[in-house]
Every structure is written in C-alpha cells, then in structure tokens.
Input
Amino acid sequence: MNGYHHPPVGALAAELCAGLLRLRKGYVDAAEALIRLVDPAQEYPYEFVVFRLTNYRGPRDKAIQPLPGGTLRADLLRLMLQVSESFSLSTTDYDEPVVDIAAVSKRFNVSTKTVQRWRAELLPARRVVFPDAKRRIAFLESTLTWFEELRRESLQRSASFNQLSDGERRDIIRRASRMARWARCSLSEVCRRISDRNGRAVETIRYTIRQHDAQNPSQAIFPHLLAGVGPDDREVIYRCFLNGVSVQSLAQRYNRTRGSVYRIINEMRAKILLEQPIPHIYSPQFALPDADATILETERGAGVLPASGGEVELTSSGGQTDGAHNAGETPAPHETPATRGAYVSDKPVKVRKPADPNLPPYLRDLYNTPLLAPQRERELFRRYNYLKFKADQLRKQISLNRVRTQLLRQIETLLIQANAVKNEIVQANLRLVVSIAKKHLGGPQELFELVSDGNISLMKAVEKFDFSRGFRFSTYASWAIVRNFARSIPQERYQLDRYETTKDEVLDAAAGLERFDPNAVNLPELRECIDVLLVQLTPRERTILIDHYGLNEEQSSKTLDQLGKSLGLSKERVRQIEAGALQKLRVYMKPRA
Output
C-alpha cells in the first residue's frame, strides 16, 4: 500500500476503513494504545498487531516477517489518520478536550512546524470534525499529557526556541545587520557567528532574523531572501550544479542556505519531469497486481538470433531475412532450429560468411549484434512501455510545493532503464536500416546520410510500436523508414533540380546542401538524458566528466593532466575517479529486474 513501510499493515488499514462504522473509532483508539506500547528496538508479529487493533486472533501467516518497532509505529500513525478519514469523527465523540495543531503550538510555545515534526515522529493524531464544521488534524488531551511526560526535556528545549527577551532580539538584529552590511556575511554565517557568541541555537538566530525581515521589509537585513530566487537564477543554479559546481559555492554566490539550494535543484528536476512528455503504449497487463514480477523480472534464456556476417534485407512481407543467398548455403554451426524457425515463420534464417573486413567499422560492427527472436522482442517492448507507464504514473504524484527527492530519483531511474531497453531494440534493428538505405541509393544523399535519416525513423518507430497486436517490429519499422525516405529523398532531389545547370554545378550544389544532422534534432533530448545522469554523481565526478569530455558548451575538453592540476590531484587519481564515475553510470543505466 502507498505510504506504508509494511504492505500488510497498509492492507489491514484498507480493511478497517471498509469495516462497520460503529467499530472504526475503536480501531483508531486501539492504534494509539498500540503506538504507546511499541518499542522501536523490538520486533512484533503481524498477528499481534491485528489482535491489538481488532481483538481478533486469526491464523498465523508464516509468510509475513516480524515488523520492526520503528517502522511499525510510523505505519500505525498513518493508519490512525486513514481510518479517521473514512468516517465522520467529531469532537463530541470524546469525553475529553480535543485540540488542533494551533492550540498545541500555543500550549508548548513552539511553532506549528515543530508540532508537525512531532506528529510524524511519535505524536498520535486524528482527523476530527470541529464545531466550525471543518475537519482538521486533532489531538486528545490524554495524548498530549502522555507525550509531555515522555518528551519533557526535549519539549523544554523546543520551547526555549522562542524564549528570547526583547533586548536579546535587538542585539541579534544589530549584530546581524552589521555583519551583513560590512563583512558581507551570508545568513548561515551570520547565524553561526552570533550563536557562538550568545550560546543560542543557530535555528533560533535564523528564525529571529527571518521574522524581523518579514515584519520590516523596508529594513530587512537580507532583502534578497524575501523576494526569493527568480526563474532565470533557478535555471543558472541548476545548470551550474550539473556542471560540477558545489552546493556550498552556489549557496555563497546567491547568499542562500545549502538547504534552499538543494530545494531549488529538486524543484527544477521536478519541473523538467512534469514538462517532459512520456509517451507509451498502454497494455491491460500493466494494471495486474503482479505486473512488476512478470514484466520486470530478468529473462533467462531469452531468444536472440546469433550475429551473422550476412546483410539483413527487407522481404516482400516486411520481415527480415539475409537477402539473396547462394544455393546450398548452410546455417551457422551455433544456430539452432528453434532460433531459426522462431524468427521468420515460413523461412528459416540463414547466415552468410563473416562480414567483409574492408567494410567501414560502423557497418562491420552491426553484424556483431544478434537479432531479436519474437519472444525476446515482445518482452523488450513490454518492458520498455511498462517502465514508461510506471514513470508516468509516479509523475502524477509530483507536487512543486513539496518536492520529494526519493520520488524524483525513482522516476528518473525508470526513464533511464526504459532508455536502455530502447537502445537494445534499436541496436538489434540497425541492420534493417542499412538494408533499406542501400535500396534507395542513387540520389544526392550518400549511404551514411540515408542510414542516419533511417536511424531517426527507427527510434521514433520504437516509441509508437504496439507490441500487443502480434506483428513483428521489423514490419512496422520497415514501413516507417521507407515512408520517411519517400518524403526526404524527393525533397532533396527537388532542391538540386532548382540549381542544376551542368554536372559540376550539380555537384557543387549537392556539397552545399545542408546535411541531415541527427544530433541537432535530438539535442534537447540528449541534453536531458545527460543532465539526469549527472545528477546521480558527486560534484567532483561531474566536474571531471564534463570537463574531460567537453559536455559544457562554453569550453573545450581538458586532458586528465589539466584536470589534475585544477583539482589538486594527480593524473592517475583523476583517471581513477573518472573510471569509477563511468562505472557508476553503467550500473545506473543497466535495466533492472
């Protein structure tokens, strides 16, 4: 269940919410009694939890492991809120005072934010309808008395947060104003220095200064903090972070705290994810309870056709074969009847001799990549679309008002894994592009231009292919590539015909035509993928990769020796850090079960 550390407790909460209305108040009260009893250092059987909440002793489920006390207590706090939201619980249902968060804040002389932190850690709460007919978070008098006895010392420390005399406040404001004006100190540095001098907590100093600036904007000590960071500065901060600038440096540059810089970075990550389209082909299989286990599990023995030296060509039916072959040609020794018959239903796949070593390296390497058998192809497309489906569903939980880093990382991981699956599909079908491109030679475009153009069509076809219809991807991809060539080649020839006078002029015109550049077409997508990956690295690792490979458009690449001198490291140490960062990215991009 969403939000619960232990799914059985989440399932139990759903059952309690669907139970009899007259019993639900008792479930909430029993959960609070169990919270007071639970020891974070102990483990508790699931049957014990069920018995304490429902007074029902059911059969023991050996498949459910004992629940640690710390996470169990957090789940019980969530269960109380969920069950109390499922029916109308009123303040008149209790024989003792019931107060809201504001009253608790005033009672203990702390901020409402502190009360919220207590509630998340230990303080049991309910959702109750108050006399003004509004439902709010509420606490019982007995709950507050128990909590006060349990946390007496920490409550006293928290209460001292606001217990400053007027003279102390004036002294803090005077010192902060002087340090900010003459010493150009940041808010964090000002708070630390004043805290060292008067013995107050750093957060107490910070709260006092921020409260003064909010109440006196014309005399604010840090007026730039009142206005916040503009959209342009947010973009600069995010780009600088991706380029390896440390958070501490950004905090000093913009006079912000490290926490606020991290918050800006995460908000930018969330904004990019919300704006980024995640197209996918939906399948009813995605909604099954065991979808993760059946779709994302590692396929063992998945069929692939062995790499061959022959060229793959388009058949009349749209499938792939090895092209015209000599009579009497025999299958490769390592090829099995199962794999041959699985790929083309009516004709076995045969292979030619190894690829000509005189071919360009790109074409020669294509024949080292095995073709995909039908089952493997369906599994890859199902996994690819399911990963994007999960990312799209999780993206709906993003809130720019309260960004959760763990949620962002989870979505980014799913998108990276989907991209890795897409690359596997594309790599296995590149020979099809070459085969079709060879048939369209004869115009102004060279083979590699046609291949580049066809590769773009192939990648777009991967995103639009519906694997559930039962067709082979090669059929759909062939149609998409041929259709793209039918549009692009006549247009290229038309441009040449407009300037044709003599043969030499035609050649000059062809040389002067703008070439098809796939990098320019996919540069934003490529930049987003690189940015998502760089976020996962440390600042030093990002700096080394960006500077060494020239990922920063504003400067050229640097050698390892130059990087070592700028970072104060040896050349060998820089190489080791780079190797570790690349390995980390490989592991992160690898599709996971």
Observations:
- Strands lie at 43-44, 67-68, 98-100, 126-129, 135-140, 304-305, 313-314, 320-321, 371-372.
